[in-house]
Amino acid sequence: MGTQWGRDKVYLRARQEGFRSRAAYKLVEIQRRFNVIRKTDNVIDLGAAPGSWLQVVRGLTDGKVLGIDLSPIPPMDNVETITGDLTDPGVQAKARELLGVVSVVVSDASPKLSGHKSYDQARAVALGAESLHFACSVLKPGGNFIVKSFQGTDFSDLFHEVKRHFHSVRNCNVQATRKGSTEIYIVAKNFMG
User: Fold this and answer.
1) Distance between alpha carbon 128 and the CA centroid of its chain, in Å?
2) Strand ranges of the sheet holding 65-69, from the earlier edge strand across to the other edge
3) pLDDT confidence tier of residue 117, bands split at 50, 70 and 90
4) Considering only Cβ atoms within 10 Å of each terminal Cβ, which end of the chain, N or C, has fewer?
5) Spatial contact of 143 and 137, defined as CB atoms under 8 Å apart
6) 148 is catalytic
7) Domain annotation for the chain: domains and CATH numbers
8) Which helix (H) or strand (E) element contains residue 64?
């Protein structure tokens, strides 16, 4: 990694503490604030590579844990992985087969960024909508959902769509986000089914 990472204190802390990326602290903070994942929950992580959220999830639950990503996820004890597209009905069916009851879906998925803010924001919102569709297809009633997005003109559409499916929906900015980023998380609890 280049010098930009060498000066990033959160990245360095993640490496020292054995996390695969700095993103682990984002989920740690969301969990601390909203208690989304319970000890018995079966959890799916979308956009899971390289696996830092899976590391956090594995420490929060004794239930089954599944990571899904287009890129292969390095192996991890007591974690199943699928290399595939979250929009593929076959991937969704395989996820249900592996986990049975799904209590929580988390998504830190992000499109490859182009550097054009409005374009990147629109793609992130579209990916968030696909993650929501996935969650609605697998979650049990009462389940929880976390999804990353970026603030901008299309964000409110995604937020309102999430509100159609969950009883409690909140925005969440986290401290581990890089300065200048418009990254934001939607934390949704109690899926209506």
Assistant:
1) 9
2) 80-83, 65-69, 43-46, 102-107, 139-150, 183-191, 166-172
3) confident
4) N
5) no
6) yes
7) 21-191 (3.40.50.150)
8) none
